Amino acid sequence: MSLQASWGRAPLDWWEERDAFLKDGVLALVLTLLAFVPTLSNIGAQIGDLSERPANALSVGLILAQTLPLAARRRWPAGCLALVAGPFAAYQALGFPTTFGSLGLYLALYSAGAHQVRFRHALAGVVSAGYAVLALVLDRLGSPQGIADYLAFYLVLAAFWLVGSTVRTRRAEEAERRRLAAEVATAGERARIASELHDVVTHHVTAMVVQADATQFLLASAPDKAGEGLSAISDTGRRALGELRYLLDVLDPTGESASADQAPTLGRLGDLVEQARRSGQPVEFSEQGERREQSVDVELAAYRVVQEALTNAMKYAAGRTTRVLVRHGEERIEIKVTTDGPAASPAAAPAGREPGLAGGRGLAGLRARARMVDGELEAGPRPEGGFEVHATIPSKPASE
Fold first, then answer.
1. Which of 46, 129, 207, 308 has the fewest CB atoms within 10 Å, measured from its CB?
2. The pTM is what?
């Protein structure tokens, strides 16, 4: 069992151990030096009011025993308190003159309240019992103080312990808040990764399924053109592997292996459109305004909106004309993807999925992604038939 577990103190890492030991060592040294400054002799903890006897070698040793253990007040708070309280009691019972070093008892009590984790109640009971014994000893030695005096001094000692306990409680609450914040951040990151994987896998697998179905038809009707379908499937598979590799590289702790050339950006929307066309989906693509390099979040959000909308079209409205419009403005980027024909009915959609958008996660995922960049997204059937996805994303140039 480690010393940490034995003494039941709050856990510290190695650097905190070293820093705490150095600071507490300096504190103990300063208090020791101040204990021998004559002008500070009237400042200190004192109980009993026994007749003073002159200082001697024993009193010096007891003073050092009340100050030097403070070097370990955070490392071994219970042991520090025991090493300080015992000499303090002996010093008072022997009637030596008050010194500034007696304040070490207050610091030891505070440290035990702030840093002791295990056996706190037992330690408080032992300290209280020890104080009761000291009060009885002082009374037998002829102390003029009464019960009220001993009780008042006990309350002072308890106050230092309670201050330390309050600090410990607040520190624990802050640690719990940080832990909960980390859990929320982790959950958010998991949701983001799940959304990324959903967008990549659903789009490319849908495209490959459509291309494979088309290739089977060509093998039966026009074998000489089946090679184009197989080539399209191969290209789609390579694109999927490329995007998955980029996503895994981004998730790497260093992030150094991620290639910017593979990052989904507005400049690669043409590749998405071409892929959909090779899958047999008639797509009309147009851009308005001057395209500017945007922040990574904005580029990725815009790319995923178009990707998911095209996946939706290929899965639920195969063969129907799809129009993709990207309008670049000074303050926002507007994306509109419309597909002709009737939108998918609720009955046709698998259970748990929103009709008209692939994968069940699509619409909710796109809305969440838009909100992450302060954007908005609307999606649903059009009155004249078909389906429309309309997203507005605030423009955030990469230079900002």
1. 129
2. 0.55
